[in-house]
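for the writeup, i need someone to sanity check this before i put it in the appendix. the sequnce is what the collaborator sent (i think, or maybe the updated version? ugh). structure was predicted straight from it, no edits. if anything looks off just tell me and ill rerun, i have time this weekend
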Amino acid sequence: MALKSALNIGTLSLILSLEAVAAGSFLIPAEALNSPANIVQRASPPQLPLNWQTVQPPEASGSRPNIQPTGSTWNSFQPPEDGVPGRREGGGTRGLECPTATTALTALIPQSTMGQTISAKPTFFYYLPVALDKTVQFELADERDKTLYKKSFRMVTSRAGVVSVSLGSDDNSPALEVGKNYQWYFTIKCNPKNTTDDVLVSGWINRTTLASTVKTQLDRSSDLTKLSIFAQQSLWYEYLATLAQLRIQSPGDASLAIKWLAVLNSVELGKIAQEPLVASELTPITRK
């Protein structure tokens, strides 16, 4: 399967927020965005509508014995044998629009690039190495790389940090089916006139289901307690999203910061573990 870089621009409306920060218009710095790598290109299939959901912090209470996830917990799932592994760090460009940064655009996923979820419309996390004001695109494809979902928009952040993108609030977005593998692509369009300058990360996601006893346990648990269950069940996307929400709710809680550091270190992403969760403003791009 070939990765994608040339992608169409569509319309959507959303404001994605991880913290109460007002995002204005910021131009990308002159030294910044991506690290050297191969450029990946994919053909551009039809676009489908998309809406993005702000991650809201839940109420957390209660506790249970701490279960610290390890790399083997998250890397126990692999992409399909005939599938191309994703890429956690963005491909580089030698152009002037997105000069090299010390740290690359990075997807918060295991080294295997495959993560599991129980959500029909999960949340995805990315590290942006600079304040951003660029066209960004998200795409979801099936196991055979057929595009199911794609949308482009302008993303503006006030600083570097971790942002999240959720499909949960869009009635038109496709629900992931239990037992199926999907590939996703997140692209920064450094130069809209030249797709070879695109900076792209990609990964795999598989939706699974839980035993009824585990579902009951989750229903009766606080969000803090759920972290241990998510770790036991190797649910990467739920673990990361829930922990991020808890950190936003309690930014001064050192134990949550330690958990965040531990989970990113477990998948060799410790170099961005100290980066903040930041707000992101997404504006639809109208096709002319």
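DSSP finds five helices and ten strands in the chain. The helical segments are 71-74, 212-219, 223-232, 236-249, 254-266.
thx in advance!!
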